[in-house]
Amino acid sequence: MNVYTNTTMKKILIGGLAATLVCCITVFTSCSNDDESAPLPKDVVEEQLQKMTLREKVGQLFYVRPECLDTTIHFNLPSGIDGSADDIKAIKLQAVNATMKGVNEKYPVGGIILYAHNIEDEAQLTTFISQIRALKGSPLLCIDEEGGRVARIANNANFDVEKFESMGAIGATGDAQNAYHCGNAIGAYLRRYGFDIDFAPVADVNTNPENIVIGARAFSDDPQVAAPMVTNYLQGLKDAGVTGCIKHFPGHGDTKADTHYGYAQSMKTWEEMKDCEMVTFKAGIQWGVQLIMTAHIATPNVTGSDIPATMSSFILQDKLRGELGYQNIVITDAMEMEAITQQYSNAETTVGCILAGVDIVLGPQNFVEAFDAVMDAVQQGTISEARIDQSVRRILKLKRGIYK
Q1: Cα distances (Å, whole numbers) of residue 386 to 3, 149, 307, 371
Q2: H/E segment holding residue 141
Q3: Rounded to an integer, what distance in angstroms lies between the CA atom of residue 15 and that of residue 197?
Q4: Residues 6+ apart with CB under 8 A from 375
């Protein structure tokens, strides 16, 4: 049975089919943590790609919570917990168990993201990360450690690391070296604990004072102030040996609603975004950022529809890759967020975002179901294996740069 509805297909392909076809035949290049004077030979990645099975390739497209590998978890929830993303933290999964190993044998995974409830103290974290490293798919270790209120480690009393008030406070100093110090300090302790990727910094420009989700997570309401803060933070992470990720494209700073809990939109036109939000994202692209995270916001005055940017080929292909020239990895915001789950099924969103141009699917609501949906879509011809290969090439190049 085809997992993808005709209505959803039409919404995703409007305005973006031509860009998708162009993208599928374009050879992409990316920079890495390696010295740019010694780029990775293309044939090394191609050789590795050719040896991979389809399941191994598909696994690389998923970065998931550790709980996603424990398929018994929803049957053993404490009383009163309904299994939603907000309630999973009560389980405190902090080690790889036998069920997770068994699921992972069939469902390899490209990355694991840890949340605050997965982290107890240094000893537990060290053991947990070593267990994750042994999983099939050679998963990268990821975390949201922005500094300020979104800091899974710094806000844990069991860790003695430098803390930062907020990125807004750093931006208010007007000195981009403070952003470098923040990124470098955070990168240093993340590298020490074994993380590869930090989903930071926020590149949004917080122009809406009623914004309840971004706020002081952004460096400024002025893109000219925010842009050098973003690139200096990225450089600080890189110098510490950690890969950064700017978010949330095409900009979550002018919204009122929180995409964790439902539909959100920006009413800006593309021309308005070019003068504001795109200033910071273009700065990150020119710097050489390896990952850009999508926003689940709708931009009806850009796309002409209420489709989330995460599932819009017009936003991701025409604008991000085409107009802005971005060559590297596109990763979704967590797909378990209600801006997505209230509108689409798990299978629709997973297949839809890949068709739209996403390389990595972060935090699907049901990993096994999402994985199977992609496998079915390839077998049915909805997604070509060449399209999967396109994303896996970028991911393998990133991994080889990290594991240099």
Answers
A1: 20, 41, 25, 17
A2: strand 140-143
A3: 32
A4: 54, 55, 58
Query: For 313-363, how does the pLDDT look when each residue is reduced to its tens digit (9 = 90+)?
Result: 999 999 999 999 999 999 999 999 887 888 898 999 999 999 999 999 999
Q: What's the rounded Cα separation, in Å, for the pair 14 and 224? A: 33
- Cβ within 8 Å of residue 9, ≥6 positions away: 355
3-state secondary structure of 61: coil
State yes or no: pLDDT of 67 exceeds 60: yes
Cis, peptide link before residue 248, omega less than 30° from 0: yes
- Own/partner pairs for 371-374, CB < 8 Å, 24+ apart? 371/58, 371/59, 371/62, 371/107, 373/3, 373/346, 373/347, 374/58, 374/61, 374/350
Instruction: Provide the annotated active-site residues.
Output: 260, 333
Longest dimension (CA), the chain: 57
Tokens 């009383």 correspond to: 79
pTM of the model: 0.87
Strand, coil or helix: what is 319?
helix
Question: What are the structure tokens assigned to 36, written together?
Answer: 């740019």
Contact 333, 310 (CB under 8 A): yes
- What is the token pair recorded at 92? 């405190």
Give me the half-sphere count of Cα atoms (radius 13 Å) on the Cβ side of residue 393.
24
DSSP string covering 246-299: EEEET-STT-SS-TTTS--B----HHHHHTTHHHHHHHHHHHT-SEEEEP--B-
